[in-house]
Structures are given as structure tokens and as C-alpha cells.
Amino acid sequence: MSAPAASQSDDAALLRIEGSIATITLNRPAAFNSINLAIAQRLEQLAAQVEASDAIRVLVIEGEGRAFCAGGDLQTIGAAAEANTVTPVVGELLKHYHAFIETVRRMPKIVLSSVHGSAAGAGMGLAFVTDLCIAADDARFTPAYAKIGVSPDGGSTVGIVGTVGTRRALQILLSEDSFTAQQAYEWGLVAKIVPAAELKAATRQFAARLAQNPPAAIAGTKALVYQAATTPTKQQLDAEEHKIIAAMHTEDFRVAVKKFTSKSK
Predict the structure, then answer these.
(1) CA–CA separation, 220 and 244 (whole Å)
(2) Confidence category of residue 155, pLDDT binned at 50, 70, 90
(3) In what order do the strands lie in the sheet with 13-18?
(4) 139: left (phi > 0), else alpha (psi -120 to 50), else beta?
(5) With contact defined as beta carbons under 8 Å apart, do 236 and 50 qualify?
(6) Checking DSSP bridges between strand 58-63 and strand 21-26, what pairing results, if any?
(7) Residue 155 near residue 190, CB atoms below 8 Å
(8) How far apart are CA 23 and CA 16, in angstroms?
(9) For the packed helices 233-248 and 251-264, what is the interaxial angle rounded to 10 degrees?
């Protein structure tokens, strides 16, 4: 496995690795971390590096500056619409950004979004397409798509529909101007709300707790949960059998069982 390229402070997204926890920081604060081609390409590259590392168990995604992510870069997209180049420009942008989202969903690690300020459009989608979301109490989520006459992208329907169901998803995407972290928590989209000043520390603490799960448990659980809704019962049960037996061959399992059985004697 090749070593990750070091992040430069002016990169569109930054990667930091501390033990078993990696953090990707969206780094276009002047543009509220809106997604252009540069950030999409960088996110695809960094996610691939995280996926390839056996040492990483948890990936945190956060935003630099006053917002988590304001969604697609409307300056870029608006200019393409004026020039009648939407298909190649947006197609290229989404090719890289959607590859990043696919990696987030597929990688055998827990992906945790850490949201403060505004998460709008594809930024809202990113917050909820991750496996778990921790949010500051002042976070605001804004669908934004219908308001500019478009349908969702960036995995927005993947994460939201899978969590809240069809009717609530339609309500969120077509009739909500914006909603609070508390509403998102009540709908099951946010796992934990913390005071804004404590978000970074609480995110580190949450990520550290998640990273205590052994790799086989993380990988097997994530894969099984995401496939459960669309997999026939017999096939899902076979998958459960395969993954639990694989996990039982690991040293993590043997150590945990010895610890448990010695306590119960």
C-alpha cells in the first residue's frame, strides 16, 4: 500500500491521520466548502487512501470555517448553464464526487460526519450519506434543490431515504426550507447533538469510541446493514453466517471471548 500524500494547507480537502482515526476536512472556507471539481477530485483521492489503509477504523468528515458544506458550487454550475456546457461540466464534477460517495458507503470503516453551521444541498446529502452524524446544536440543514429547480444529487436520496423512508424524504426534499439539528435527531438522521463549542472534542471522543470496535466487526456490520433492505431473507442470513464465522477467526474475537468467559466463571 502506498503512503498517503501529505496534505497541503491550500488543498481543497485535507487528510489527517491520528492512530486508527482519519479526518478529511473540506477546505474551501471562503466558499463555505462548496463542491467544485477540485474538491471533488481531492475527496475521491483521499477517500481511496483511507479505504486502502488497514490501520484506519474510523473516518471523520468535517468542514473548515463557518459552515460544514454549502453544496454544489453554484458559480461553476451557473457559468456552465450560461455557456450551455452543463452536461460535460457537471458530469465531470459528479463523476469524481459520486466516486467519493461510493467509497464512503463501501469502505469497511465507520464514516462519521461532524456538522456545524450550514449543510445545504449536496452538503446536507454528505452529512446523511455517512454512517453516522454528530451535529452542533446550531447546525442547519437545507435541502436547497427544489428551490433552484433541480432534483437531489451527491447521495442525498441514498442517505435520507434509507433512514427516514419515502414520505418523510419527500417532505424533507420538497417542503422543508431548512431544519434544525434537533429535528434531524428526531428523524434519526443525527446520532448525537452537542454544543457548538464542544463539537471538535465531542467528535474526537465519539470517533475514539467507535474505533474500539474491531475491524471485522465494523466491516461485517456495515456491509450487512446496508444490504439488508434489498436482500432476500435467505441470502441475508447466509451473508450473516459468512461474516460472523469470518470474524470468529480473528484474534480480536478470541481475546474478547476469553475475557468474557473468565469473568463469568
Answers:
(1) 8
(2) very high
(3) 13-18, 21-26, 58-63, 110-115, 132-136, 192-194
(4) beta
(5) no
(6) parallel
(7) no
(8) 5
(9) 80
Alpha-carbon distances of 195 from 65, 141, 186, 202, rounded to whole Å: 17, 16, 17, 9
Sheet architecture: strand order including 179-180: 118-120, 140-142, 179-180
188, 20, 67, 46: CA torsion to nearest 10: -110
Q: What is the pLDDT of residues 80-114, one digit of tens each?
A: 999 999 999 999 999 999 999 999 999 999 999 99
Task: Please state, in angstroms and rounded to a whole number, the distance separating the CA atoms of residues 119 and 154.
Answer: 13
Tell me, what's the pLDDT at 125? Answer: 97
Question: Number of C-alpha atoms within 13 angstroms, CB side, residue 29?
Answer: 11
For the cut 50, the answer to whether the pLDDT of residue 1 exceeds it is no
Which helix (H) or strand (E) is 74 found in, with range?
helix 74-82
- Chain position carrying cell 449543510: 119
Which pLDDT score is estimated for 145? Answer: 92
Taking domain 13-210, whether its CATH number is 3.40.50.970 is answered by: no
pLDDT at position 94, please?
Answer: 94
Which run of H or of E encompasses 132? strand 132-136
Confidence (pLDDT) at 262: 87
Instruction: Output the pTM of the full model.
Output: 0.93
The total of other beta-carbon atoms located within 10 Å of residue 72's CB is: 28
- Does residue 64 contact residue 115 with C-beta atoms inside 8 Å? no
* Helix (H/G/I), strand (E/B), else coil: 140: strand
pLDDT on residue 3: 44
Number of Cβ within 10 Å of residue 66's Cβ equals 13
